[in-house]
Design brief:
Length: 133
């Protein structure tokens, strides 16, 4: 009877399949991480634009001379903001000093809405107090 000699060179099929499985798990994990990084980058960019737009609008309100001019800014605005963003200015005149709130909301690339302008709930929200000049 003749013995079959086994070569010690190369990999077995099981070793090769395990190596491919490990490679696929690592590649999938890296793809997931890159996807998260791109989403965080977009969120950060949008938040920066929203805060810049809110600060610009608040400076316009601060440059107003009278309370009539300040209350004229109350309401929605889109000037100075990218296309996917909307802002709203709230002016509370019930007490002195007046409370001015600027809120900006936007829509992310996947259609996810960030910020609720009706409830002044947004990551891009600035509140200040103002006195009549």
């Amino acid at each position: 009877m003749r013995k079959c000699e086994r070569s010690e060179k190369g990999f077995t099929l099981v070793e090769l399949m395990v190596a491919i499985a490990v490679f696929l798990i690592v590649a999938g994990s890296l793809f997931y991480v890159f996807t998260l990084v791109f989403e965080l980058n977009e969120s950060s960019r949008n938040l920066t634009h929203a805060l810049r737009g809110a600060e610009t609008r608040l400076e316009e309100v601060r440059n107003s001379d009278t309370m009539v001019q300040i209350t004229a800014y109350a309401g929605d605005f889109t000037n100075g903001l990218p296309e996917n963003m909307t802002g709203r200015v709230y002016v509370n005149t019930n007490s002195l000093p007046y409370e001015v709130t600027v809120v900006v909301g936007w829509t992310q690339r996947g259609g996810r809405q960030i910020g609720d302008l009706a409830n002044t709930n947004s990551p891009a929200k600035i509140v200040t107090l103002m006195l009549n000049r």
